């Protein structure tokens, strides 16, 4: 990073003010603190609201556990899916700067409304009558206010999260810089580490404030943090490199599919016949690639006089597409198989409820007076992820480069594979630890008492969290870097949102897996593997199922990686120790 600073300053001194391109006079490392702070504050604020929200709905809105859980499930699903919408809006209409700005404002308004529900008694049902043991249900207006706050927070996350990474990369991405790959790799790592630290602060600091000072303060602090997030982002507006949005990518994808189908009976032009394909003016891409060749028919010019307008564009974009449109859709289709390999890992990472139940039944004391809350063991996942990113970026790569005598990096596909292998091992460790815990509980006579604490330290749960943290560090960062480098630059926000979409799909599939296992194992009046009484259930067998699925997914990844072929960086022969 320091070499990049010196090189940038040297280049600027060599160019006069009049000769310096506008795109190189803005952006750069000076914008990084503002962009990273914007999303970090947003993550601390939004993630800090989630852990105790079920308690807020049960106690203050008098909801049952099932109803409250369903509401939170849909809220989290919406929060994970909206980044895809935000990515398309950013790339196609508003640009990343406006999308992040509007997203920050939406999140701020949503958190203010949520804080309003805690501050104003009339915004939620009155307290339960202790004499009659009756509780009033929330009114439609009260539920609407609550849901509207959730919607705004989800929309805000959809604007900020998919665009911040791509917006930051826009400020640093200099394709003519020989050290560009190293700069981007370092940025991706530090960006993800800061996001992980933000989540860690949210799961500890914000939750602690809510427990100690109540929801009036506990919801007010996230609102203040979100205000700071918006202010910090807009403060650096004059320094940003703001790329304009292009035409709608989603519309372009639909046009390619429809036009290719309409032209399905056309014959392909002769090889090396570029004049038969429609492309943008001054484009370096004048002919489509041979992969997914059937889509190439969408950009074949049938009649130049009728198909091409006077300005060189398509007279009817629903009858003729550009080579660029076709190649963008191909690029997206091409990465989807490798994208799908990360879903199983995300399912493993989403297993939050069972570790909490396990930790609750184990000895959580670090000292005689202090014990770690059962819901806080997930922090070891975040800690291991952040520490690995720092160690990898500041120790492993510099040391390897010094030994080799040349720049060394680990290829993105190898990193993704390592992460998927580690999540397999994490599930195996989870099954072994749970089997030992269950045997100890039964040996102690606690089979019918799931709340009893066994004589086994909850620190035995730490290795599985650390392994999943390392797995996420390898695969999540590797996938994000892979998407950004392999997709066209016009699709960079979509590239950043793909991993979030994988999380959303994983949340839904994780629920499906639990439901299927519960239905199958509880037939005939048997105790379900995922019983609420974990001493009677077989959570260890459930973990073995996830481990088997993870190993199958690993072989699926090998197949997808082989079928994909060399990445763009390998094709350009960037020095690496693996592909």
Automatic annotation (TrEMBL):
GO molecular function, one term: transmembrane transporter activity
Pfam entry (one): PTR2
Origin: domain of life: Eukaryota
Topology within the bilayer: Multi-pass membrane protein
Keywords, ordered alphabetically: Membrane, Transmembrane, Transmembrane helix
GO annotations of cellular component type: membrane
Transmembrane domains' residue ranges: 71-90, 97-116, 146-169, 190-209, 221-241, 374-392, 412-433, 494-517, 542-565
Name under which the protein is recorded: Major facilitator superfamily (MFS) profile domain-containing protein
Organism classification: Eukaryota, Viridiplantae, Streptophyta, Embryophyta, Tracheophyta
């Amino acid at each position: 990073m320091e070499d990049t600073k010196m090189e940038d300053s040297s280049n600027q001194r060599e160019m006069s003010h009049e000769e310096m391109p506008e795109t190189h006079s803005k952006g750069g490392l000076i914008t990084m603190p503002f962009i990273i702070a914007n999303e970090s504050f947003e993550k601390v604020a939004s993630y800090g609201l989630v852990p105790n929200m079920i308690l807020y709905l049960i106690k203050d809105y008098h909801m049952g556990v099932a109803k409250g859980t369903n509401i939170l499930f849909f809220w989290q699903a919406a929060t994970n899916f909206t980044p895809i919408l935000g990515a398309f809006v950013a790339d196609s209409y508003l640009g990343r700067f406006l999308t992040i700005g509007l997203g920050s404002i939406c999140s701020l308004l949503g958190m203010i409304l949520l804080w309003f529900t805690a501050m104003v008694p009339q915004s939620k049902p009155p307290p339960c009558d202790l004499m009659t043991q009756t509780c009033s249900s929330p009114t439609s207006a009260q539920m609407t206010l609550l849901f509207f706050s959730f919607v705004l927070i989800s929309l805000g996350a959809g604007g900020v999260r998919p665009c911040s990474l791509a917006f930051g990369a826009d400020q640093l991405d200099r394709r003519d810089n020989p050290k560009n790959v190293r700069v981007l790799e370092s940025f991706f790592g530090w960006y993800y580490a800061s996001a992980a630290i933000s989540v860690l602060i949210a799961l500890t600091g914000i939750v602690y404030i809510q427990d100690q000072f109540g929801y009036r303060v506990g919801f007010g602090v996230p609102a203040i943090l979100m205000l700071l997030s918006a202010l910090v982002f807009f403060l650096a507006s004059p320094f940003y490199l703001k790329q304009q949005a292009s035409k709608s990518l989603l519309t372009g994808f639909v046009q390619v599919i429809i036009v290719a189908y309409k032209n399905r009976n056309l014959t392909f032009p002769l090889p090396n016949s570029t004049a038969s394909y429609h492309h943008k003016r001054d484009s370096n891409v004048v002919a489509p690639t041979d992969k997914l060749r059937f889509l190439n028919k969408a950009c074949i010019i049938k009649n130049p006089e009728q198909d091409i307008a006077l300005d060189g564009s398509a007279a009817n974009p629903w009858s003729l597409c550009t080579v660029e449109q076709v190649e963008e859709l191909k690029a997206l289709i091409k990465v989807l198989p490798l994208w799908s390999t990360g879903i199983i890992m995300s399912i493993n990472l989403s297993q939050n409820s069972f570790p909490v139940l396990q930790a609750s039944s184990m000895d959580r004391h670090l000292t005689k007076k202090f014990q770690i809350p059962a819901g806080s063991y997930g922090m070891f996942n975040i800690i291991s992820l952040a520490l690995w990113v720092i160690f990898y970026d500041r120790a492993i790569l510099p040391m390897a480069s010094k030994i080799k005598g040349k720049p060394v990096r680990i290829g993105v596909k190898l990193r993704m594979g390592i992460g998927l292998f580690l999540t397999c091992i994490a599930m195996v460790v989870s099954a072994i630890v749970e089997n030992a815990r269950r045997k100890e509980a039964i040996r102690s006579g606690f089979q019918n008492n799931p709340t009893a604490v066994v004589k086994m330290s909850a620190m035995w749960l730490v290795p599985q969290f650390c392994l999943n943290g390392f797995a996420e560090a390898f695969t999540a960062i590797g996938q994000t870097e892979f998407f950004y480098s392999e997709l066209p630059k016009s699709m960079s926000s979509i590239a950043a949102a793909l991993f979030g979409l994988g999380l959303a799909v994983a949340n839904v599939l994780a629920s499906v897996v639990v439901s299927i296992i519960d239905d199958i194992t509880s037939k005939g009046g048997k105790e379900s593997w995922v019983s609420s009484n974990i001493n009677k259930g077989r959570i260890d067998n459930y973990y073995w199922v996830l481990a088997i699925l993870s190993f199958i997914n690993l072989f699926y990844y090998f197949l997808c990686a082989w079928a994909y072929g060399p990445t763009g960086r390998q094709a350009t022969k960037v020095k690496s120790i693996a592909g």
